[in-house]
Each structure stands twice: as structure tokens, then as C-alpha cells.
Amino acid sequence: MQHKVIDTADVVIRFAGDSGDGMQLTGSLFADMSAIYGNGLSTFPDYPAEIRAPHGTVSGVSGFQVHIGSEKVNTPGDFCDMLVAMNPAALKANAKWCKPTAMVLVDEDSFDEALMKKAGFTTDDPFTELHIEDRPIIVAPITSLTMESLKDSGLDQKAILKCKNMFTLGMACYIYSRPMEYIFQYLEKKFSKKHPEVIEPNKKVLNDGFNYAANIQAIPNTYVVAPAPKKPGVYRNINGNQATAWGLLAAAEKAHLPLFCGSYPITPATGILEELAIHKSLGAVTMQAEDEIAGICTAIGASYAGRLAVTTTSGPGLSLKSEALGLAVITELPLVVVDVQRAGPSTGIPTKTEQTDLNQALYGRNGECPMAIVAAHSPAHCFDAAFNAAKIALEHMTPVMLLSEGFLGNGSEPWLIPSMENYPDINPPFAKILPPDGKFKPFVRDPETLVPEWAIPGQRGFEHRVGGLEKNHDGVLSSDPANHEVMVAERAAKIQKIADFIPELDVNGPAEGKLLVVGWGGTYGHILSAVEAVRAAGTDVSFAHFDYIMPLPKNTGEVFSKFDKVLVCELNSGQFAAYLRNIYPEVTFVQCNKVQGQPFLVQEVAESINRNL
To answer: What's the pTM?
Structure first.
């Protein structure tokens, strides 16, 4: 068979193995290398839900899917063009994601009788048992070749075995024509100070994997994915948690305020706290609190003291923060609460993604307790979403919920590093001038925005009482029924007034028609790709995505009124659809829902669109 070098528009590679096989690092390096090369890119790390699940079991499989393209890439891909499976369990867990033409690469040394049985295979031919025997299958003795490659390296056997992922990465670099200079630079940067002895062995085994793939006859073709055309500028690959942290830092800079983050570590939000902790030089102060309640309470205290205050969490932690959120609402203090959603309820499946916290974000507090809600729609967009959430919080004196998702927080894509000159200043309404009678009234509001002034402790003449009890406009404790109703109404109206300061809803496609497809959060790329696929088949369909949940954009009702039906796509049982039905009862809403701890497949959304046209 003659070897071919094939130019292709895009490829999807899925790396999978035991949690100790280094597949997350392998996938990350492949993705970063492709980002630097200039490809469009989207990644999907898929972690096991159990802490140290038994070795060799399906429940312990860790995966990393990366989609690279010569055009903009919106999703990590539905199915893969190559599956790398480092053990039988990885093959069994991921064979279903292989395209009919997918190449399958396995480590022959791990396919012994014991591990086959542990993975649940009942025959000695796993490929036939999984019905993938018709695909190109590369059975390579990766472990043995790694040991042979590094037998003279001076590393012990345990350290050598940790390098087999680099051998695999070298093979993938050959198959997909990836330049390896970035990986060499990564190894030198990561290990030069503490473990310089592992740099050259890793380089060697990477090259040996590349050369092995180049010399065996089992690989029929190699592929070239050209760089994607991009707007000029400096790009980097970034994940959603890192982008969120940087967006908050940018907002602090634009507000001329120090940033404080009080949080308790929780999957999958911990990366935001870790990233902020790195940047003390930018004025960020972080505190790892003893629990979720302490995290948000320290943040509220920092807000009272005049900081840009942040707390980060996921669903179970958000439940614990609900009482303190009510305190932030009634005291009308700015606060950004980042909820990186995961599969629930309770502990649920903590490493898997969902959009099931929307009802909790909207209603999960006692009393009439409205707060603004912003949603990020891609890993890179987490930067803008975090910046905008902080801007709303500071300028409208309210806690703001920023909804992210595990899929966004851990996933990555290329990001055009912006100039801060293109971002607006943030102007908190600091109290500066006392009224003519010399008495500061903390809940007297700006007539246009309904926002009260922000008085910082230590300002002479601006002393006032804070706390969870209801007050009147003068800041005096009040249990008067009429006053309570006025204050409740004003706090709600203040949130609705935010709609005057956010963008209107944009429609991608015809402004009217049979069907408008809508979504929110991390479903953006999958819905957009599905809409484009339906259009390519000859059918007109329109798409609108919500980055602002509370309040909704001002023109939402007008947009909806021009379509026969609105299809709401979300990774829950219909929470956003129910919210929209309550506000727009005259609109015909239909639903596309998935609650599997996994993102949509593009084909799932496309099929739902076609059913509703």
C-alpha cells in the first residue's frame, strides 16, 4: 500500500488511558502545539469521577479529546478520527466515539489477560468484540519500546514508564504532521530547575516515537491540517478557568481596585482560585477558606471594605452560599460569584459537565432576592464574561452570578490576547458628597439606574449600619410593612434596569421564520455547528444565544415574536425553557435536553432542529 500525505480540513484525536498514564498532559501538549501552529482548536478533558478508581477499570479511564482545524473550530468534535487507548479499559470506554474510518492506536503491552478481564472483555479479540475490527488498528508495544529507548538514560523503571505517553505523543505528531519544537521548549521550561535529568530522556523518547511511527508499515496515511486564517494579533491557548481569573484581574485594573477572592476548593472551579493566587503582583489577594460559607462571607467583608470581591464554587458549594448571597443582596454590596457547574445533585458526578444550576442561580435564596446572572459561552469567552460580571456588580451594586461549566472551565481554545485599551473603564458609584442636611442615606438611589452609593468604612460622615435586617432609605432598621414592600420592589427594579446597559439579543440568520434555536452557556459551539449543518443541507434556520440571563436583553420578546417556534437547547431537563415560558407565555417553546454529564453532540442538536422545522 502506497503511503499518502492527505490535506484535511480538520481532525479529532481522543487520547485515553488509566488516570496515571498521562493522557491529560499528552492531550494538552498536542493542543498547545496545534494552537501555536495556528490551527483552530477546541478541547474536552474527560476526567474519571472517582478519586483513584481501581487501576485498569473502565471507571478509572481518563480521556482528552482535541479537535484541530484549518478553519475556526466550535466544538471538540462528536466522534474521533484517531483513538489512542493505553489499556483495554480505555479502548472499551471510548470505542463508541470512533468514526467508521477512525485509526485506533493501542499499547500492545497492556493487553494481557488480567487487564482484559478487568476491563470486562469476554473474548481475546477486543476489536471484534467492540465491532471496530474494520478500522485501521495499530498495535504497538509502546511500553516495551519506551523501556528500550530509555534503558541507558539513568532513570529508574518507574520514571521510565511515566515517559510512555511521550512515545505515544511522538507517534501522534508523525501521523498528524505536528512540529515538536513547542514540546521541547515545554520540557526545558518545566523541568530545568527541579528535574533537569528528565529533559533529555523525554526528548529522546518523543523522537523515538516519531521515528517508530515513520518506519512501521501499519500507518497507511499521514495528515496535514493547515493553520486557520485568523485576525492578526497574538494568540495563546487558554482554558475557561484561567480566562475567568484573568477577566476578573482585568476588571480590577479597570476599576482601579484591589481584587479579593475568598473560596473553598471544589471541582471543577478550583483552577480559578489557583490562577488568581499566582498574581499577587497584580494586587490580587486570595484566601483558601475553611468552608464554602467562610469563602463567601470573607468576600462580602472585602466588598464592604471597597474591594472587587469574588468567590468561586460549583453546585454543592453554591447551595451552602445561599444565605450569604441573600446578605449581599439586601446590603446591596458588589460581589462576583462564579459557579462552574457540574453534574448533580449532591456530589453527583463531580468531573462531568451540566447546566443544572440555573434554577438555583435564579431562585435559590430565601425571600424576594433577585440578582444578576451572566453566562460564559466558550473557554475564551470566560474572560469577557468575567469582566462584564464584575463591571455589572461594581457599577450596579449587586452580587452577580457568573455561570460557567466544567466543559468550559477545563476545555481550551485559541484566544486573541486583547488590548486593555479596548475595554471600558469601570466606575463604581462611590459616595463622595454628603447631602445638604449632612446625613448620609445609604439606600437613596440614582434615579436613572436605581443604584445606591458605595460608602467605604473610614469615610467621615458616611458611617452607616450594615446587616441582614431590612432598612429604610436612611439606613435605619425598619420592620414597617410598606417600607419592606418598597425596598423589595426597588431591589428588583434595580436588577431589571441592568438591561439598559447590556447588549441586545443578536440573531444569527433570518430575523423571522419558522424556528429560532436558542441556548445559553457552553452549548454555544454545538448549537452553532448544528445550525450551520442544517443550513448547509438547504434549510433556513436562525440562532440566538443568551450571555445574559437575569435580566434578559431588552429585545428578547420582540425577537421571539417573529418566529413560529423557539427551540431551547440546554444540558438540563428544561430550566431555561421554563424560565422563558414564565416571562413569555405567548411564545411556543420546544425543547432539546440532555442530562448525561456530557456536552451535546452536534448531530443531536441538528436532529432536534430538523424534527421541529
So the answer is: 0.95
